[in-house]
Amino acid sequence: MTDTTVAGAAAVPGSEPPSGDVPVIAAGNAPAFPGRRRTPLLRGRGLTGLILVAAVIVAGVAAPLLAPYAPEEQIRNANLLGPSWQHLLGTDEVNRDVLSRTLYGIRVDALIVFIAVPAGAVLGSLAGVVSSQFAVADVVTQRVFDVLLAFPALILAIGLTAVTGPGAVPIGVVVVALELPLFGRLVRTATLAVRELPFVRAAEAMGAPRSWVLRRHVLPNVAEPVLVQLALSMSGAVFIDSAMNFIGIGVRPPTPSLGSVLAASVANLHSNPMYAVGPLIVIAVLVLGCQLIAQALTADRRRAGA
Amino acid sequence: MPPMNPLLTRRSVLAGLGFTGAALLTGCTSAVSLQAGSPANETSKGGTLRAGIGQDLIPGNFFTNSNSGITTLIGLVYEGLIRYPNDRVAPTPRLATSWQMSADGRALTLTLRQGVTFHTGRPFTSKDVEFSLRTYAEPVWNGQLRSTAAAITSYDTSDPQKVVLHLAHPLGNIFDLLDTVPIVDSETFDGVGTGRQYVGTGPFRFVSWTPNSQLRFAKNPKYWQPGLPYLDNVNVSVVPDPTSLTSQLRSGQIDYAYGNSYLDIEQLAATKRFTKHQLAGAEQQIYVGTNITAPALSDIRVRQAIAYAIDRERIMSEVFRNSGYAVNLPWPKYSNAYDANKNTTYALDTAKASALVKEYGKPIAEIPLAYSAQVPLYRQTAQIVQANLQAVGIPVTLDPLDGAQFVKRLIGAEFPGMWTTFHSWAQYTPSTLTVSAYPFNAAKNSSHYSSAQYSSDATQAWQVADGGSEEAVGHYGRLSDDLLSALFLIEIGVVQPQWVTSNRLRGVSYTKRQELDLTRAALSV
């Protein structure tokens, strides 16, 4: 038996694995010890992705230091100016500095991406775990997930904002609602698979409580796919957030967001072609960064399972 | 140094460049002369005009003149009894050839044009006038001049070529009604509400409507004006995005557009390939409305502060690209209610605005400012107004709404704070505005404003038989004073709408309600 032989495989409450590490099983037949493995985010594309995302976050956090103007300041006689040393990306249709609005716009997007997506991931994972343990809960959650998945993201967003009105909170709710079924299904499937593994069965046979088995054996084994999905979902959330702001159901003006700056730029590209460049670059960098992180994590899982 | 390629000697290169330059110049000159000398500048009969508009037809709003889908349909398919020239309020013949008002101003006799038929072939008679005016007066159609139509107490249609309208009282704006109401075919009117059938007497027949996509029209071969119209067909695409509308013009997919931004039109006109049509005489007014029952807005000092704080000149210049002028009152300059002095009552004065806010004394909670989110002009205006008011201590939250929701709130007087949009009807007899338009209607308006004085002045102005008389002008002056002192609506500016056409299209015209008139339009060869 080679596929499930791990340290502490038959551990029961009160006994610790010899190494002190949490025993985890990758998808394949080799044990994985993340603490001993060099993290995929410190090399290659993982590192590149991390740097890209970090650069965007730093730009957003440091916006008050980097931005030459307040994001909502309407500058006299500065209507739709082209790029200059005074306004590197020009000005918009109500005389605001586009660079400043782009930098501050990162903050709104980052808040949604880095709060709403993890919130959706946590709630979805919890729902997945619960549904894997109780038959009734399983039926209910799966049908709820079916309903959520039946709505395309923007239709769901339009429906919700028709009731609540536009704003950052509705965007966050939409992102959470979209992530719930993704993480819920992922965790449920992974949990059901891990539960069938011999060492988990052995622990249960030895009288280990269900909660202990979940905490010590199941959750550590589903953590990696959840992390990969998290990175992917973050890049997707950038799109959803930008798209909602683009079609006018995002944050309320004059608060800047990447999508709203981009949307406003479209009608004014003939006057200031650089208007769209700033938000486009930031969105592209953020999505690319998240994708590279997800790819690095996926590749690492494959390697670990090989 | 290796020997130079004989084909690339300095002389041969210069000769080659010279030849190429000459060839290019010749080519350009030929192209220019071809264009100038060819029939390209001449118009011809026939052809299909491809047009683009920003808003789709809403059948239920047929009588409201509220969007470009409706004004395009009515302009092409229907006609009124009279027509005002664009630059003044003076009736000229259309389906009525002459008219006579009784001495007491309570009976108007209209002689109708002979030989006019509906698109179904049925002759136009006095019964159709009665049917059209009575239908317009039905509340279900939300016609803004309903009160005027309802003041027609009876119709004498005994002569098919003559109709006598008996009025409850003299109506200074009766011709506004006759200019506005399209004459509809009673036999097919059921199709109007569903968007299935539109039958009028106009130069084009309605062919089909594909919701959110296209309206199609064909020439009316039996039009009463011989030889007109020139065009065979008109296909109107619905293009809600102003940028796409501009792109379609640039790429030659359409030759007429209504719905572009003022900035785009300015840039298109600068290319010399397109013609800007500024609709003088068909003005709209951009304004900020207030719910005077809302906290803070119920105090006149706060409303005055708003009026002093708004930078009207900036909005007219940056948002509307100087296609109009700043005002304090709704009347356009040619109106007999216009008064230049009164229009400076609330000139920009931020110090005075701040002082009024301080005088009010209480903390002002965030006031919502609603606008239709789909229209970039409103978003721009709202953001400037917000910044202006914040600067004098009036906090404002922007509230972008879906277009249909916005109109529902406007008609239902459901705005909790302020709103910004266009209104119209000030280009007509001034009394029309104060007894008809939703925001101004003295009987019921979107601001919840009610005043015995305002109602009385509005009614008196309305009931003067000659809307252009000195007596009427005196009433308009008092109405202007009422509007300036109550300030339930804060005017920003009079705006002339703009259309843009490619230089291929000639002879495009419009009515005072921005209806598209292609009776004499033609495409160049």
TrEMBL record, chain A:
UniProt KW Transcription regulation keyword: no
Keywords tagged on the record: Cell membrane, Membrane, Transmembrane, Transmembrane helix, Transport
Main location: membrane
UniProt keyword Cell membrane, yes or no: yes
Membrane spanning stretches: 46-67, 110-132, 144-163, 169-187, 226-251, 274-294
Sequence segments annotated as region (Disordered): 1-23
Residues covered by the ABC transmembrane type-1 domain: 106-294
PROSITE patterns, per database record: ABC_TM1
Top-level taxon of origin: Bacteria
Pfam families from the UniProt entry: BPD_transp_1, OppC_N
Localization in the cell: Cell membrane
Entry membrane topology: Multi-pass membrane protein
GO biological process: transmembrane transport
GO CC list: plasma membrane
CDD domains: TM_PBP2
Family membership noted in the UniProt record: Belongs to the binding-protein-dependent transport system permease family.
Name of this protein: Diguanylate cyclase
TrEMBL record, chain B:
Superkingdom of origin organism: Bacteria
GO biological process: peptide transport
Ranges annotated as spanning the membrane: none
Endpoints of the signal sequence: none
Protein name: ABC transporter substrate-binding protein
A Pfam family this chain is assigned to: SBP_bac_5
InterPro entries in the record: Peptide/Ni-bd, SBP_5, SBP_5_dom, TAT_signal
Gene Ontology MF: a single term: peptide transmembrane transporter activity
PROSITE patterns linked: TAT
A GO cellular component entry from the record: periplasmic space
